Amino acid sequence: MKKRLLPMSILLVSLLLGLCACGNGNGAAAGGQDSPAPQEATADAQEPETAVKEEETIENEEPAQGNTEQESAVAGTDAAAVTQAAAGDTAAAADTASAEAAESSAPVSNALAVYFSRVGNTDFPADVDADSSASIRVDENGLMGNAGQIAAWIAEEAGCETMEILTEDAYPVNYNETVDQAKQEQNAGFRPMLKADEKAVEDYDTIYLVFPNWWGDLPMSVYSFLDSHDLSGKTVNVFVTHEGSSFSGTVGTIRELEPDAEVLEGLAVQGASVTDEEQNIRQWVIDHKN
Ligand SMILES: Cc1cc2nc3c(=O)[nH]c(=O)nc-3n(C[C@H](O)[C@H](O)[C@H](O)COP(=O)(O)O)c2cc1C
Question: Rounded distance, CA 138 to CA 118, Å?
Fold first, then answer.
């Protein structure tokens, strides 16, 4: 019986000792049951994980953004990140674009845009009603006729200056009187006296010659201009403004008068819709740059 009681008492003592340990709050056992510490630890462990995921997300997006920037920059400051093929293609496209831009903005070598217009050759009163005539327009420089407007666009595109053909005597303010006078001049083969040229026309290689169709022909003042200049060896680009007659025979006439010039047919622009033709006029100049 004593032999049986001994293990029992050892068991009881062990149980008692165990109970005492619980009462002291010893962490060894508590640690295994309380969740906050491990949860914090888990949270600590998750935080970097989340951060890594965010970084991974950023890393996944960054190369795409980087490529886009590099491709659009084309400058090749970070060329290592761009494949050579892509860089080559982009550089070639940039070269083509800049060559085209240079071509369209390069001035036509040694050119002058010469024009005659009723507007600059008529002493209109300051309060002239520009709206009442399709051929008179007002801009920041004052009154401008159709031929003047065409010449201005040509000069802008060619990178050159303009010169107006000016008669000594002004034409009548009244439109119909000018029409009548022009007919009489044409019938008589009259050559109006011109004011002195503002430019040395002979010094230019390319002349853009712009004028209105008057009675199916050049205005007589343009005959005066051609009579007083030898345009041999020059390129003469002819632009006519009209209200239905187009060039008539003007290009052929200029070729006869200037047989040693290369006379090109430019554009015939209807006066009433001259503003609609701006791009065509500019494009013609670009397309015929030498
Ligand atoms: C005297 C005179 C004669 C004209 N004769 C013609 C003509 O024969 N055919 C035509 O289509 N337009 C004719 N027009 C219209 C002009 O050519 C047209 O309005 C032109 O755009 C005017 O240009 P400008 O504003 O530079 O003067 C004539 C205009 C004038 C003033």
Answer: 14
